[in-house]
Design a protein that fits this description.
Helices cover 48% and strands 11% of the residues. It is mainly alpha-helical. The strands form 2 sheets. A 3-stranded antiparallel sheet has the order 1-2-5, with no helix packed on it. Strands 3-4 form a two-stranded antiparallel ribbon.
Length: 213
């Protein structure tokens, strides 16, 4: 598992803000969604009033002998839908992105249109989407000093690691990621916990001594 620090992620997102998939990278980074979940997201899944998006489905490339490869849309990996809160800046960026899509074609901004679909409104192929990510990171590395290469799925790890490192409750992070239980989150991100344990011990000692936590 590899992940970026918050400054590294910020540098990457600022590197090419006009890239065709810049909104995709930002959305993945700010929500911790899986690749297939993001590619299946529709505009009707975004609640503009509450600032939340519903993760209801996921896209997977399936190869069938004699029939070739097909993109199948089904339930998320956990088997159930979840709701993820968006920060105001990301919500505003999504609103602006939808307006841009509408300028290309009104059908691209309809409620049942894919948020991250192609300019033709089709579902992006997961593997080609990943290759676009790899290329984007390689370009950023030429300009951002010390930026390590990470996989697309590592954006999910980055989201979780930054939140856990900042003291966000494990249960909250687990719900955002769509894990079946917080136990899974703990087992996957145990590398973050030692520092958090030390901080918790110091806080408890300070409170016990009569100080302010």
């Amino acid at each position: 598992m590899h992940f970026w620090t918050a400054p590294q992620l910020r540098a990457f997102l600022a590197h090419d803000p006009d890239h065709e998939l810049a909104m995709a990278w930002r959305l993945l980074a700010n929500t911790g969604m899986r690749r297939g979940e993001a590619l299946a997201l529709q505009w009707r899944d975004v609640d503009w009033t509450t600032g939340r998006l519903s993760v209801r489905r996921s896209v997977t490339a399936v190869k069938t002998k004699g029939e070739g490869e097909q993109l199948i849309t089904g339930k998320p990996k956990s088997g159930r839908a979840r709701v993820v809160d968006l920060d105001p800046t990301t919500l505003a960026a999504l609103r602006s992105y939808r307006a841009q899509r509408a300028e290309i074609g009104l059908s691209l901004a309809k409620d049942d249109a894919l948020v991250l679909g192609t300019v033709d409104g089709a579902t992006r192929h997961p593997e080609r989407f990943t290759r676009a990510w790899t290329a984007a990171v390689a370009r950023a590395q030429r300009d951002v000093e010390g930026l390590p290469a990470i996989r697309l799925h590592d954006l999910r790890h980055t989201h979780a690691t930054i939140l856990l490192g900042a003291g966000t409750p494990v249960k909250v992070v687990s719900e955002r990621l769509g894990h079946a239980s917080a136990t899974i989150t703990l087992s996957v991100y145990a590398h973050v916990m030692p520092g958090m344990q030390a901080e918790a011990a110091a806080t408890f000692a300070t409170l016990l001594a009569g100080g302010q936590g």
